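Project standup — Tuesday

K.O.: blocked on the structure for the chain from last sprint. Re-posting the sequence here as requested.
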Amino acid sequence: METVPSLSGNFSAPSRGHQLRELHREIATCRLCVDAGLLGRAAPILPAPFPSRIVLVGQAPGRSEEAAGRPFSGRAGRELFSWLARAGVPSEEEARRRVYLTSITKCFPGPSPGGTGDRRPSPGEVALCRPYLDRQLALLAPRLILPVGQLAIDRFLPARPLGLVVGRVFDQGGRELPAGEPLNPGHFPLLLPLPHPSGASRWLNRPDHRELLEQALEWLSQLLQSPWRGRAKRL
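H.V.: unblocked you, prediction finished:
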């Protein structure tokens, strides 16, 4: 059987890193949403510009992320890193070294009008920011994408509720990988959806939903340990 390149292998080239840094500089000066009247202030939040085969895509930075100047810095980030630890990434520092942390939109959208959590980015904000995410993914060429929360999941697996995607793995075309199917380059990037770790989300209050999260973390553990050899397993 063909051996598929490792998820964690060194694939970067100086030109790729340079292009990513240039893209980060461009995003950092973006004012598209402000100029369109969708945001009062532009403050894009980005990770360190390092190439990685694993990309995690959240919804948008929160107030804590805006204050700290880096993704997933608040309570939701701590919960997310605890999930990654259960999958085998032992610390936040290592997670930030191994996983490129980005989001559908790059600026804090402000508090929710209802007073609970952050405002969901509007369709206009998502549309204006989409080319940046497209270019990030094109440069990184990830083998594994972790969309976190419904907005991010809709970007890759549109019109599928959390209960039908969390705990499952999909190929780049959105097809669920059946048990025993050999992995091959045509599957990549694999898509492994996760629920949003925010305390404002009530989705994980249900025991069956927590079980789906456990299945997703088992999948992630398997992919991190032996990602691209053998056959996909039903966990």
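K.O.: great, moving the ticket to review. Residues 1-6, 229-235 have pLDDT under 50 and may be disordered. Strands lie at 54-58, 99-103, 144-147, 190-191.
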